[in-house]
Design goal:
Belongs to the metallo-dependent hydrolases superfamily. ACMSD family. This is 6-methylsalicylate decarboxylase. One of its GO terms (molecular function) is metal ion binding. 48% of the residues are buried. It is built from eleven helices and twelve strands. An eight-stranded parallel sheet has the order 1-2-3-4-7-8-11-12. It has a two-stranded antiparallel sheet with strand order 5-6. The chain has a two-stranded antiparallel sheet with strand order 9-10. By secondary structure, the protein is of the alpha/beta class. It has one domain: Alpha-Beta Barrel (TIM Barrel). The longest helix is centred in the first third of the chain and has 20 residues.
């Protein structure tokens, strides 16, 4: 039987600071329609202890600093968030790390400047959290090429979190919030965009973590191959081959936040992602009950399913340690 006693390293767990709450309030709430929970250092540590979690890698969730726009206010919010959270993790360095936030990527220069601050000046964050889209642009968009180049120069770990999408009707059944169903699609669309634009191929020194078990990517990745079986794909003069696609598809890491049900776990194993799976809780946006149910599903899969031998708590922990070690970051 697989051992399930290893302590988790949580790569998908959120932090809510005073400045982020104020920005959301100024924008009349989360545009995804999701209710904003409460967060304190104490409640986070209590939650971590309750599920045998050693370290939380905190991040600001969607829409991030974009809630303040793509100008000076967005830049200011990104800097304020990064300084606030740096203070939190510095005071709890044995238990907490963080992915730093960037401004809205449509503010290219502001984003480039913040990346310099994050990696060259502050030097505390273990990577960055970025949203799955900015305005009408997915992450592979040509406008963002210089941002990806700088991330590659810094050999960054990039955590992609889904965000609100502009579709019509915006809400299923009039008021179902987008995180409940649309977010996994948002993650998958931007992952496909990074593959088909060749952007991921141009960044050999970064690693990307996709939220929520990669969304629907494990189910539809082969479908994208159909386009490439017919010939190379050309994006604004950048040629993507079938070999490029398959190689880079197998570089994505995927967290298991709200994505550890047996069907999802089976799909990820068949997908060949066992060395790239990471634990995630989505606390506090996933309630204690919801998040703990997901963790229980994961542990039950490990205990009862024959494929559990391929994924256990030690495997998830070691995957995280090895990923960050690859970028000269120790989580021990």
């Amino acid at each position: 039987m697989a051992n399930t006693t290893a302590q988790f390293i949580d790569t998908h767990i959120h932090v809510i600071t005073k400045s982020f709450l104020e920005a959301l309030d100024n924008a009349n709430g989360d545009p995804s329609g999701y209710a904003i929970p409460t967060w304190t250092v104490e409640s986070c540590l209590e939650y971590m202890d309750s599920i045998n979690e050693e370290r939380a890698i905190l991040s600001v969730t969607a829409p991030g600093p974009s809630i303040a726009g793509s100008g000076a206010e967005g830049r200011k919010l990104a800097r304020t968030l990064n300084d606030e959270i740096a203070d939190i993790v510095t005071s709890n360095s044995g238990r907490m790390s963080f992915f730093a936030s960037t401004p809205d990527w449509n503010d290219v220069q502001g984003t480039l400047d913040e990346l310099d601050y994050i990696f060259s000046t502050q030097k505390i964050a273990v990577g960055v959290v970025v949203m799955s889209s900015y305005g009408d642009r997915l992450l592979g968009d040509s406008l963002f090429e210089s941002i990806w180049k700088k991330l590659n120069d810094f050999k960054a770990i990039v955590f992609i979190h889904p965000t609100s999408v502009n579709i019509s009707p915006k809400f299923i059944a009039d008021h179902l919030s987008q995180p409940m169903f649309d977010y996994p699609y948002a993650t998958s669309r931007t992952a496909a965009d990074l593959l088909m634009t060749g952007r991921f191929n141009q960044c050999p020194d970064i690693d990307i973590i996709l939220s929520h078990s990669g969304g629907i990517l494990p189910y539809l990745a082969e479908r994208l191959c159909a386009q490439l079986y017919e010939g190379d794909f050309n994006y604004n003069g950048t040629v993507v081959t079938l070999e490029d696609y398959k190689r880079n598809l197998n570089r994505f890491y995927m967290d298991l936040a709200l994505g550890a049900s047996a069907p999802q776990m089976e799909a990820l194993i068949v997908f060949g992602a066992t060395d790239r799976l990471l634990f995630g809780s989505d606390f506090p946006y996933a309630s204690n009950t919801w998040s703990k149910r997901n963790t229980a599903e994961l542990l039950n899969f490990i205990k009862t399913n024959s494929n559990g031998r391929l994924v256990d708590a030690y495997k998830l922990r070691n995957n995280a340690i090895n990923l960050f070690k690859k970028h000269s970051i120790s989580l021990d």
